[in-house]
Amino acid sequence: MNIPKTTKPRIVVIGGGFAGISLLKGLRKEDVQLVLFDKHNYHTFQPLLYQVSTAGLEPDSIAYPLRKIFRKNKDFHFRLADVISVAPEAQEINTSLGKLSYDYLVIATGTKTNFFGNDQIEKYSMPMKSVPHALNIRSLMLQNIEKADVTEDDEERKRLLNFVVVGGGPTGVELAGALAEFRKGILGHDYPELEEEEMHVHLLEGEDKVLAPMSEHASKKSQEYLERLGVQLHLNTMLESYDGSKAITKNGETFHTETLIWAAGVTGNPIGGINGEAFLEKINRYKVDPCNKILGFDRIYALGDIALMETEAFPKGHPQVAQPAIQQGKHLAKNFKRLLKNKEMQPFSYFDKGTMATIGRNKAVVDIKKWHFAGAFAWFVWMFIHLWFLVGFRNRVITFFNWTYSYINYDRAARLIIRPYKKT
Prior knowledge:
Blueprint (H helix, E strand, L loop, with lengths): L9 E5 L3 H9 L6 E6 L3 E3 L4 H5 L9 E3 H4 L6 E5 L2 E5 L4 E4 L2 E4 L2 E4 L3 E3 L5 H6 L6 H20 L3 H7 L1 E5 L3 H21 L9 E5 L11 H14 L2 E3 L4 E4 L3 E4 L4 E3 L2 E4 L3 E3 L10 E2 L4 E3 L12 E3 L4 E2 L13 H19 L14 E6 L2 E6 L2 E4 L1 H14 L3 H17 L15
Parallel strand pairs: 1-2, 1-9, 2-5, 9-21, 11-12, 11-17, 12-13, 20-22
Antiparallel strand pairs: 3-4, 6-7, 7-8, 10-18, 14-15, 15-16, 19-20, 23-24, 24-25
Helix pairs in contact: 1-9, 5-6, 7-8
């Protein structure tokens, strides 16, 4: 592999998500060689993927080139490649571009969609874990509405305008709310032949409430907001099968739909070669010590969603969201600085900054320790936080402009079928 040889410590990072980027930023000024591998040449701000999928934002608003982030670093090297496996004994990784040795390896590969072994749902449903996924959903949504506008078959029109979202966590709630707002703000204006009441948005959740990990206040308010927007909630409902046009739940309900979006869970995205007690196969996560080193392995660390650090406050590991990943990345960068000076590493301590979700215009819920609030103020807090954590000034400006435009005009300007989606 054409990575320059070096006498400096080589730190190899797999994954350009929140954890990997935070780590690399913290090591910018250190006398080390930094090598980053990722399947994409951009960092994705995943919390806003749902807005791309529902025509609220263009993908370049939430994606940023990885090379651009670190272009001022003289000894930073990015490679667009798949990392296939790790050989801990040889201290090297095997990639689609060849092999590369490392002094320290950091695995920050995040999560992938969890279909819980249901191959049929995996084949026919629409996941949303990447920019291409979000663009596929956007295209399919708009294509189906276009078809519904011209079909003379009433049953086909019902299927085309029936949207089913599976999973009542933040992603599912935000998707359902965005689809309902699309119906309210766009459908009647762009498609005068269609009635707003013809488009239905269903949200299926296996538990007895939405946003189960959040406070009771957040759960109740979000359910209230969804119902106010016209989303049809189906609680205590689990999907059993979906063949591309008909979805059947375990309690016997049937939904005829051409668009089923799967937001019901994630699982870790591991790399081959890290086995033993440290690898928890059922959840695809690596057990790590308080300094994020994978148990039983020297010089190999894991960060963010792929890492499971058991603590008194989080016996099942930290939540698989952005903040633990960002904080772990920053902390490991500080620990590497200590390590390079022959100092002891310090244990990681997570500072819970709270959780939030938005359901629609002026409708959001926020939990910050003992404080729980909802409504317009929570919505503005949600907007500010998400703007702040976007990578790149241009992204912040574009996103702010789009949100301001949409707020004033009740519009979603990115409703373009750039790349038509073909169902399998």
